[in-house]
Amino acid sequence: MSTVGEDTAAVGRSCPYCRFPLKEGAPTTVCPHCGAAHHTDCWEEGGGCAVVGCAGGGTQPRPSTSPPGAAPPPGTGQPPTAPYGQPYPPQYGQPQGGYGQYPPPPPQGANNNGGRNQTVIIAVLVVALVAVGAGAAIAILIKGGQASGANAAATVSSTASTPASTSTSTTPQSTGPSPSEKREAQEGVVKVLNEYETAYSAKNISGLNAIFTPNIRRHGLNGEGDCTITSGQSEVDAIYEEQFNNGTGSYRLVGLSPNAVKLSIPGESITGASVRSNYEIDPGGSGWVNFQLDKRGSEWLISEVDATCA
Questions:
Q1: Burial of 100 (C-beta count, 10 Å sphere; 0-12/13-18/19+)
Q2: Residue of 175, 181, 199 whose CA lies nearest to 298
Q3: Cys-Cys link to 186, which of 24, 172, 174, 261 (CB 3.0-4.6 A)?
Q4: Given its phi and psi angles, is residue 165 left (phi above 0), alpha (psi -120 to 50 degrees) or beta?
Q5: CB 133 within 8 A of CB 160
C-alpha cells in the first residue's frame, strides 16, 4: 500500500473501481501489473485490480447499487457523483440525523369559547342581512306594484349573489433540457469522437489538439509500452507522437452511438458527458477506453482519455 502523497502522478486520477478522484494523502494501492492506482478500500473490496483485462483483476464485481446518502470515498472531499455512470461504493456509511416530530396536540378541555363566539357573530350578521333584504323588497312592492317589486327584488338578489372576481397566476416550472436537446447533445459528442478516430488514424496531432481541452488528461500506454498518466496538450501530444512513430494503425471505436453517451446535467443545462467504449487499432491491439467531455458553449471538447494498459 502507498499514499497519494508519495505518488504525486496519481493525484486527481480516477480510481478504476469507484471512479472517484484520488486525493493527496489518501491511502492507495497500486496494481503491480498495470500500475493503476486504487483507493485501498476499493482494492480490498474488489479483491484486486479493477482495470478490465489486467492480470491482477479483482475477484469481486463492482457494486451495482448504492444506498441513499452514501458518502464519497475517504479523502475526496466531493459529493457522491459517478463521472462514468458507475455507482459509488456502498461501504462508506449512512447519512446521520433523523426527522423531527409534529408538535403534540392541545390538551383536552382547552378553552374554545373564541370559536363559539365567532359562530354566534356570523349567525347574527346573516339574520340582519336577511331582514334588510326583506324590508327593501316590501318597500319596492308598495311603491311600484307586485310585478315591478318582484323584478327589483330579483335584481337585488342577483347583485348580492354575484361572487367577486378573482385572478390567479401560475409560474411556469423549468424542466431542464428537452428530449430533443439531449439527443442533439449526444449526437454532438459522437461527432467529436468520430473526429478523434479520424485524427488518430491519420496521425494528425493538430487534429487531436483541435478537439482537446488545454488541460487534457490521458491514461494509457506510451510508445515504449509503459502505462503512463500525462496532463496538458504538449505532454499528451508527445505520447501520441511516440505511438505514431512506432507505426500504430487505424483507430476505431466499436459500437459508438448516441445511446452510449451519458450526459451530465447538474442543474438546468447540460455541462458534460462521458462515454465508455471498446477500441480497435489495426494493426495494433484492442481494449476499453473511457472519454470525458466538457461542453464549452456550443462546442464539445475531450477533457480526458482513459485507456486500458493491458
A1: exposed
A2: 181
A3: 261
A4: beta
A5: yes
Give the CA distances from residue 54 to residues 35, 65, 150, 273, in Å, rounded to whole numbers and listed in that order: 10, 24, 98, 26
Question: pTM of the predicted model, to two decimals?
Answer: 0.46
Average pLDDT score, the chain = 77
Bridging pattern class, strands 286-296 and 272-282: antiparallel
Domain ranges for the chain: 1-95, 179-307
| Nearest Cα residue to 35 out of 54, 20, 19 | 54
Residue type, 301: L
- Per-residue pLDDT of 96-153, as tens digits, reads 333 334 445 555 544 555 556 677 788 878 878 877 777 776 665 556 655 555 554 4
3-state helix, strand, coil split of the chain in percent (to 5) is: 35, 20, 45
Backbone angles phi, psi at 217, to 5 degrees: -120, 135
